[in-house]
Amino acid sequence: MTAPLRLTDRKREAIIQAAIAAFRADGFEVASMDRIAAKAEVSKRTVYNHFQSKEELFSEILRRLWATSAAQLDMTYHSQRPLREQLRELLMRKMRLFNDSNFLDLARVVIAATIHVPERAQEMVARLASQEDGFKQWIRDAQADGKFKAADPEFASHQIYGLLKTFAFWPQITLGQPPLDAPTQTHVIESALDLFLSGYEIAK
């Protein structure tokens, strides 16, 4: 049983959720600490007790996004299992992530806040790339095992994630489309696997 949050932790969480809502509604530059305090139903002083600036609040939102994303990318290569089976598990985890409304809200806030600030965008891309190191290692291990063609692991990892994001991430982020239903998720995953493995798997 999970222990209840202390009052100070509940206030901190309320502030973070209020910041996500304010950044999404008004944009990072326009949203104010006053507005965030009002949304969180706490005093402005309480907000500053937890976060010294909007930038610090934004950093916490970034941290949550990276942590949520990283939890989906832990992957170990297994030489006795078919590549398709292993990759299907990875894509199913990613698909579950793309269907998480909290993750999508965080992603919308982060993307909107980075569009007009190149420095933030560069940091986001660098961090996302580092989160995918586990899958890149999986590709290297599959190559060493003679199951995966010689290819740049970074390029290949971007490619397979792109096949998913075209249908299950970007339309939801940019156009407000609903998450894919279960049959469509399965179709997108299996089609991505067909395309990816036809180009990279070494035939037996």
TrEMBL record:
The keyword DNA-binding applies. It holds the Pfam family TetR_C_7. Keywords: DNA-binding, Transcription, Transcription regulation. It comes from the Bacteria. GO terms for molecular function: DNA-binding transcription factor activity; transcription cis-regulatory region binding. Residues 32-51 bind DNA. PROSITE patterns: HTH_TETR_1 (PS01081), HTH_TETR_2 (PS50977). Residues 9-69 form the HTH tetR-type domain. The keyword Transcription applies. This is TetR/AcrR family transcriptional regulator. It comes from Pseudomonas vanderleydeniana.
